[in-house]
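Sanity check record (used in CI):
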Amino acid sequence: MSRTDRAGRVIAAPPATVYGALLDRESLEAWLPPDGMRGRVERWDPRPGGGFRMVLTYLDSTDSPGKTSESTDVVDVGFADLVPPERVVQRAVFEADDPSYAGTMTMTWHLAAAGDGTEVTVTATDVPPGIDQADHEAGIASSLANLASYVETAS
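Expected output for ATPase:
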């Protein structure tokens, strides 16, 4: 049975600004890694049918072993749909030997104007069973908090 994880938050920046941060390589490296991780984009092609490869490294892997290696998660992300400034749909595949991380997870970032800001809702479908739901939702929320901090200080 497929699983869906969700998180959302209102960000004090217009949808176009938030959307831009979803499709900028340096921005993604700065805000996408959740607390306790850092990220590096190895490949970048920001168009429908394009995508990116990100290496996420745990700052302390003692309690959070990586999916790809002891201290890393490597994920190949394809851009399935880009609708400025409303939606970004990504298809993510983790590089892992453990079959519990296999499959393609779809991440839909929906942006809606909310007063002077943007309500950002992230929905992850077909989440691999090896990813703990509470940890995943906390990670998405952490990334959203980083995104808010990133775009709100830039505005």
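The first helix runs from residue 15 to 22. If this sentence no longer matches the regenerated tokens, the check is flagged for review.
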